[in-house]
Write a structure and sequence with these properties.
GO terms for molecular function: flavin adenine dinucleotide binding. Belongs to the UPF0053 family. Keywords: CBS domain, Cell membrane, Membrane, Repeat, Transmembrane, Transmembrane helix. It is a multi-pass membrane protein. This protein is of the alpha+beta class. It folds into 3 domains: 190 residues, no CATH class; 120 residues, CBS-domain, CATH 3.10.580; 79 residues, Uridine Diphospho-n-acetylenolpyruvylglucosamine Reductase, domain 3 (2-Layer Sandwich), CATH 3.30.465. Helix content is 56%, strand content 13%. The protein has a 5-stranded antiparallel β-sheet, with helices on one face. A 4-stranded mixed β-sheet has the order 5-11-10-9. Strands 6-7-8 form a 3-stranded mixed β-sheet. Strand 15 and strand 16 form a beta hairpin. Helix 2 packs antiparallel against helix 5. The radius of gyration is 37 Å and the shape is elongated.
Length: 517
């Protein structure tokens, strides 16, 4: 019993128990499948009796194999190698472990499921118990050979097998769930099988590898896996703090990026050094088109945007002033391509109602008072802090009209139409009297200062612009970056982009040329 005082004995025992538990997971899966054939009140009993008998048989097999490996008299002797019965057992066992681990690793790496549909439906209690014992004997062969390859003392092997079986009985469900959730642990233990199998083969061929080297490599690998599990746990913990919508959006965007990179790798294949590169364009159905990516990104990021980034700003609102005469109002309605107008008294903040241009023109022809006619359709006013997702419900109640955006002081900030929401998702749709917000030039972009930052980021394929929620437009970003209103000709640098002010007034930025460094 002096070997119990050696640290290597306890290290071998602990490692062997861990390996026996992991290698017995497949046994537990088959036991659970067979137990389902019985009534619920007999399943636990069958599992305990079956695994108990299987443990006795394991110990018997372990003693038998341990006795065989003591036979060191050579039975094969030639000029290439000398093999005894023990060497043959180690050689066959090592090759078996290498084969088993290789097959299992292949299935894990290829993400193939274990086929469990071939089990027969045994309804009898003892028939199920016998099946559990037989299956355990078959699937525990690798665990028994592993035990022989890990340590030299039969008592240590038996203690490890007994402890592993007890642990599996007490925590079979929890262990199965843990392995299913942490496939890297399975891969790590299968790698240990490869190492132990190679050690058995080399020992059979008289190339001895000290057990201490194996323990050190296994211990170091387990330590690395512990760090990996801690890092994974902390990552999942940090991810859980994010809203579910944000996590789903980030996952889908990462999927689109991987799909894009995958198609690039497929399309660009160099045959050899002397041949030209052959470009094979992927099928349109196999990848996201640019317009689809833009719209998907717009949908996923809509909830994270502000109302200010979606609305038509106050400076671009065309409104009808009731203090003007009817001829001026008629001329304004005919010259402007919009179909809906806010009607105000003297200033934009004094909104009376929302009218359709066609209906207001008919009312003017009938000499109906503009103020009285407009007040029949009161405006829908929303705060500029409203969630964009809730905005969709408000727009539905507006029944094809638009809503007015106001701040906490009652000052009109802008208006939002269903088209504005569509542009936030699918990109800009300029009116007949508008020029596009972004014009692509040869090596730069000519952009209006009022351009929405989210749309600009998507077109520039970057995440470097939106850092604060206070800025909804390019002009607001440049003013915040510069600390004051920039002057024409001034250049502002933000990360990998340069922003050259082409046109600006005393109170706003009108036009900017963007170049990438």
């Amino acid at each position: 019993m002096d070997f119990f005082l050696e640290p290597s004995t306890w290290a071998g025992l602990l490692t062997l128990v861990v390996l026996e538990v992991v290698l017995g997971i497949d046994n537990l899966i088959f036991v659970a499948i067979l137990s389902e054939k019985l009534p619920p009140n007999q399943r636990d009993k069958a599992r305990l009796i079956g695994l108990g008998l299987a443990l006795i048989m394991r110990l018997g097999l372990l003693s038998f194999i341990s006795w065989i490996v003591t036979l060191t008299t050579p039975i094969i002797n030639n000029r290439f190698f000398v093999l005894s019965v023990r060497d043959l057992i180690l050689l066959i066992g090592g090759l078996f472990l290498l084969f088993k681990a290789t097959i299992e690793l292949h299935e894990r790496l290829e993400n193939e499921d274990h086929d469990s549909t071939e089990n027969k439906n045994y309804a009898g209690f003892w028939a199920v118990v016998i099946q559990i014992v037989v299956l355990d004997a078959v699937f525990s062969l690798d665990a028994i050979i592993t035990a022989v390859g890990m340590v030299n003392q039969l008592l240590i092997m038996m203690i490890a097998v007994i402890l592993a079986t007890i642990l599996m009985l007490l925590a079979s469900k929890a262990l199965t769930n843990f392995i299913n959730l942490h496939q890297t642990v399975v891969v790590l233990c299968l790698s240990f099988l490869l190492m132990i199998g190679f050690s058995l083969v080399s020992e059979a061929l008289k190339f001895y590898i000290p057990k201490g080297y194996l323990y050190t490599a296994i211990g170091f690998s387990i330590l690395i896996e512990i760090f990996n599990q801690i890092a994974r746990h902390n990552f999942m913990k940090n991810q859980s703090r994010k809203p579910m919508r944000q996590r789903a959006a980030e996952a889908i965007l990462r999927l689109m990026i991987r799909e894009k990179n995958k198609n690039k790798n497929i399309a660009n294949t160099q045959l050899n050094k002397n041949e030209k590169i052959t470009i094979t364009p992927p099928l349109e159905t196999e990848t996201f088109q640019d317009e689809e990516k833009y719209m998907i990104n717009g949908v996923l990021t809509l909830a994270g945007r502000s109302i200010k980034s979606i609305m038509t700003p106050r400076s671009n609102i065309s409104w009808v002033n009731t203090e003007k005469n009817t001829n001026e109002i008629r001329a304004q309605l005919l010259d402007t391509p919009h179909s809906l107008f806010p009607v105000c008294k003297g200033e934009l903040d004094e909104i009376i109602g929302i009218v359709r241009a066609k209906e207001l023109l008919v009312a003017i022809e009938k000499n109906i008072d503009v103020y009285k006619f407009s007040s029949q359709i009161p405006p829908i006013i929303i705060p500029d802090t409203l969630d964009p997702i809730n905005l969709l419900g408000v727009l539905r109640r507006a029944q094809g009209s638009f809503v007015i955006v106001s701040n906490e002081f009652g000052v009109v900030q802008g208006l939002i139409t269903p088209l504005d929401v569509l542009e936030a998702i699918a990109g800009e749709f300029p009116d007949a009297d508008e020029t596009p917000d972004i014009i692509k030039e040869q090596n730069s972009w000519l952009v209006k200062g009022e351009t929405d930052l989210h749309s600009l980021q998507q077109l520039l394929n970057t995440k470097e612009l939106i850092k604060e929620d206070d800025c909804a437009s390019l002009g607001g970003l440049l003013i915040a970056q510069n600390g004051q209103l920039p002057t024409p000709g001034e250049t502002i640098h933000i990360n990998s982009f340069s922003f050259h002010i082409v046109k600006a007034t005393e109170y706003r930025i009108d036009l900017v040329r963007i170049t990438k460094k």
